[in-house]
Amino acid sequence: MKPLLLLSLLLAGAAGMAQPVIRPAPPDLPDDAVSRQLIGEEPAVVQTRHALEAARQRAQGLSAGAHEWTARGSLQQRRERSSGVDAREWTVGLERAIRVAGKAGIDRELGEAQLRLARARHDEARHEAARELLTLWLDWTAAQRVLRLWQEQQQAAQDNLEAVDKRRRAGDASRLELNSARVDLAEVQRQQSAARADEARARARLRGRFPDLSLQPVPDTVPEALGGELAMWRERILDESDALRIAREEARVAALQAARARADRVADPTLGVYASSERSGAERVVGLSFSMPIGGGYRRAQELESQQLAQAARAGVERRQRELDAEIAAGAAEASGSLERWHIAAQALEASRENLRLTQRAYALGEADLQTLLLARRQGIDAALGAEQARIDAQRVRYRFFVDAHLIWGLHDE
Predict the structure, then answer these.
(1) Could you tell me the maximum CA-CA distance found in the chain, to the nearest angstrom?
(2) Are 403 and 242 in contact (CB under 8 A)?
(3) Boundaries of every domain in the chain
(4) Distances in whole angstroms, Cα of residue 161 to Cα of each of 121, 167, 184, 220, 377
(5) CA distances to 18, 186, 410 from 336, in Å
(6) Is CATH 1.20.1600.10 the right assignment for the domain spanning 2-73+102-263+294-404?
(7) Are 102 and 303 in contact (CB under 8 A)?
(8) CB atoms inside a 10 Å sphere around CB 182
(9) Vertex 304, ends 120 and 67: CA angle to 5°?
(10) CA–CA gap between residue 350 and residue 337 (Å, rounded)
């Protein structure tokens, strides 16, 4: 029956969402406007935003080129011993190196590629901030629900102790039963204290990373199937993957840098014009100047190094895509498994509640002892904790797919 139930759930989800679509944030997550602001103000995102602007300026600089006009001048005093005549002489010139071998075009392409790389890194920082927000938020909401569960159990244990104490005074319960009820209450209080500490830690982590986030109780939601086929999600996530874009742009930058190193085997010549005055103006000279470095082993080594780095970057693209494929496949399997575990846990919780109700009734009628009642309560607590863990696991996997596919929180906008 379990495979049939799982298949029906997946088909139902696929019918409801034939393709991944942009959607509002689910009600148990921060809304889109708040999340976009928090993500945009996250320090890593701000850092990459400034790096993006720096890359824009760098691209303009590469397009203009590093070579600039250089002005030269000299002034000298000449004395002829034979005649004893002093003459003032001067020389002025203007020169500039010129990019050859297609270097100007390569530099423009390199600047554009580095700008795209900086933009991809900025988008990846937004994506990682969204992932962190999702993780910390779900950690806090899960801790909050567990704390609420133990608070309810404390009230139930307190009521049970008062009932047993009342029955003992009436002669219907023993001192052993009263001590058992007290021990049960103390254990619940201990668990509640631990849950309160867990909730405080989760709250502190969330507040520390996103201090402007308003922490309000969220509604309980029922996990749903991911919907759609694995190939559909794979295509969407790979298309939206900022990490894969980074790897591709890094490979493109490395290839252009290799092309630039290859072009640098031919050095840039420097051309100039100059004029000089000699013998106090008796002789005037106007001319052209030319200079050019002669490449050697250093330039050859740089070319070979850049070629190897380009090959390494191409291999990095393949590695990153394989990693994403593995992550997507594992995530889809976990989505199906976590949803099935939640249904099983929900059924177990319902059965434990019914068992507790019947045991409480039997205890009230004198047909069951206190130990049986306490055992039923502990089973109910375990079932409730298991159901909550299964629920949050199912939601975590599903929402992670939404974030990675850029379906929520405006991640598709930039």
Answers:
(1) 141
(2) no
(3) 2-73+102-263+294-404
(4) 59, 10, 9, 30, 13
(5) 17, 39, 26
(6) yes
(7) no
(8) 14
(9) 70
(10) 20
- Strands 270-278 vs 70-79: parallel, antiparallel or unpaired: unpaired
Tell me if 228 sits within 8 A of 17, measured CB to CB. Answer: yes
* 3-state SS record for the chain: CHHHHHHHHHHHHHHHCCCCCCCCCCCCCCCHHHHHHHHHHCHHHHHHHHHHHHHHHHHHHHHHCCCCCEEEEEEEEEECCCCCCEEEEEEEEEEEECCCCCHHHHHHHHHHHHHHHHHHHHHHHHHHHHHHHHHHHHHHHHHHHHHHHHHHHHHHHHHHHHHHHHHHHCCCCCHHHHHHHHHHHHHHHHHHHHHHHHHHHHHHHHHHHCCCCCCCCCCCCCCCCCCCCHHHHHHHHHHHCHHHHHHHHHHHHHHHHHHHHHHCCCCCCEEEEEEEEECCCCEEEEEEEEECCCCCHHHHHHHHHHHHHHHHHHHHHHHHHHHHHHHHHHHHHHHHHHHHHHHHHHHHHHHHHHHHHHHHHHHHCCCCCHHHHHHHHHHHHHHHHHHHHHHHHHHHHHHHHHHHCCCCCCCCCC
Angle 139-143-147 from CA coordinates, rounded to 5°: 175
Q: Look up residue 172 and give its two tokens.
A: 């219907």
**pLDDT in single tens digits along all 414 residues of the chain:** 344 344 344 434 444 445 677 778 888 899 889 999 999 999 999 999 999 999 999 999 999 888 889 999 998 888 776 666 778 888 999 999 988 988 899 999 999 999 999 999 999 999 999 999 999 999 999 999 999 999 988 888 888 888 878 877 877 777 887 888 889 899 999 999 999 999 999 999 999 999 988 888 788 888 888 888 888 899 999 999 999 999 999 999 999 999 999 998 888 899 999 999 887 777 888 999 999 888 788 889 989 999 999 999 999 999 999 999 999 999 989 988 999 999 999 999 999 999 988 988 888 777 888 888 889 889 999 999 999 999 999 999 999 999 999 999 988 876
Q: How many residues does the chain have?
A: 414
- Distance in angstroms (rounded) separating the CA atoms of residues 184 and 130: 42
Q: For residues 56 and 330, give the distance between their C-alpha atoms in angstroms, rounded to a whole number.
A: 38
